[in-house]
Design goal:
Blueprint lengths: L6 H14 L1 H11 L4 H13 L5 E5 L5 H10 L4 E6 L2 H12 L7 E5 L12 E7 L2 H5 L5 H11 E12 L5 H23 L2 H12 L4 H10 L4 E7 L4 E7 L1
Parallel strand pairs: 1-2, 1-4, 2-3, 4-5
Antiparallel strand pairs: 5-7, 6-7
Helix pairs in contact: 2-8, 3-4, 8-9
Length: 243
Amino acid sequence: MSSHPGENAWRQFIHKIFTAVPRHYDLINRIMTWGLDGRWRRKAARECLLSQPGRLLDLGCGTGDFTIELTRQARNSSVVIGIDFSWTMLKIAVQKGKRLHNNGRLSFVHGDAADMPFPKGYFNSIVTSFAFRNLTYNNPLLRNYIAEVLRVLSTGGRFIILETSQPKSRFIRKLYHLYMCYFIFWLGYLISGSREAYRYLAESVTYYYSPEELKQVLLGVGFQQVSFRRFLFGVVSIHIATK
């Protein structure tokens, strides 16, 4: 992959943020979503498993909650791999995974989403839970990152994206942005001690794509079909993109 002048600075910034917050990451997520993030992950996992994929990837798995949810729901039908670039996050994910009796079907890999250590077409399904924004918001190589997803996804395979979104209602959208920029920024900062991480979170959520815009991005890089569903007045969406 060719280098971009802004790529190294972007990587360093994202890596610094996700090295700073893991110890409090799960707690803040629960508070921020009023406990609904678990419900949304279960919905996304069910959607992913509808096609009964033999091998599936949790991209940007973080502390592993979604990877474990996928493994639980898949029972004995799928091999599940979680990949993340943050060792700090992965250490927590591995510890959680040890508590799950999965007969070797669950594993975690340290790797970069820009250059994943998997062969072409290896996965029948790829999912990502609140991590896609970190790959695509202000990323100078957005198209390259999505192209890498397409590379390791089999023909006919599905890419399921659970991510923050933009409500249709202007009033609700404004309330949501105020909630992120004031309440969540200060809450995250006070709990984690990382002002920079939660300033980034508030900014990236506020200025991220609407579902319609993200659909066009995915179609523009080569996905054949893209649909989406909104949840909680549109603050979160699940996108389903087919290769």
